[in-house]
C-alpha cells in the first residue's frame, strides 16, 4: 500500500509504544488511519496527536 505505513513504524517514528498507536487509531485520533483485517494502515504524513491536557473524569487537579 503506497502512502501508508504500519503501526510499528509509526511507533518508532513517534517514540511511543505500538499499543499506544493502535489505541489512537481505534479512538479516531489519527486522521486517515484505516484498518485492514487486523492491521492498521496509517498515512505516511500523519501527525502525532497532541495531548489536550484534560483530566479524566473523577481526577482532581494537582495543587502545590
Descriptive report:
With 64 residues, the chain is an alpha+beta fold. The model has no long low-confidence stretch (mean pLDDT 87). It has a domain at 4-43. It starts with a strand and ends in a 21-residue tail after the last strand. The protein has a 3-stranded antiparallel beta sheet. β2 (34-36) and β3 form a beta hairpin. The protein is elongated and about 50 Å long. It has helices at 7-14, 18-26; strands spanning 4-5, 34-36, 39-43. The chain contains 2 helices and 3 strands; from the N terminus they run βααββ.
List the helices and strands and how they pair.
Layout: E1 4-5, H1 7-14, H2 18-26, E2 34-36, E3 39-43
Antiparallel strand pairs: 1-3, 2-3
Helix pairs in contact: 1-2
The Rg value, from CA coordinates, equals 14 Å
Share of helix, binned:
25-40%
Put simply, the count of helices is 2
C-alpha end-to-end distance: 51 Å
Note poorly predicted spans: none
Name the features.
64 residues; alpha+beta; 3-stranded antiparallel beta sheet; 2 helices
Put the structure in a nutshell.
With 64 residues, the protein is an alpha+beta fold.
Amino acid at each position: 500500500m503506497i502512502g501508508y505505513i504500519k503501526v510499528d513504524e509509526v511507533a518508532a517514528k513517534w517514540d511511543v509504544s505500538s499499543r499506544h498507536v493502535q489505541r489512537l487509531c481505534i479512538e479516531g485520533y489519527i486522521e486517515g488511519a484505516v484498518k485492514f483485517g487486523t492491521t492498521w494502515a496509517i498515512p505516511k504524513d500523519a501527525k502525532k496527536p497532541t495531548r489536550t491536557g484534560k483530566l479524566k473524569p473523577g481526577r482532581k487537579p494537582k495543587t502545590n
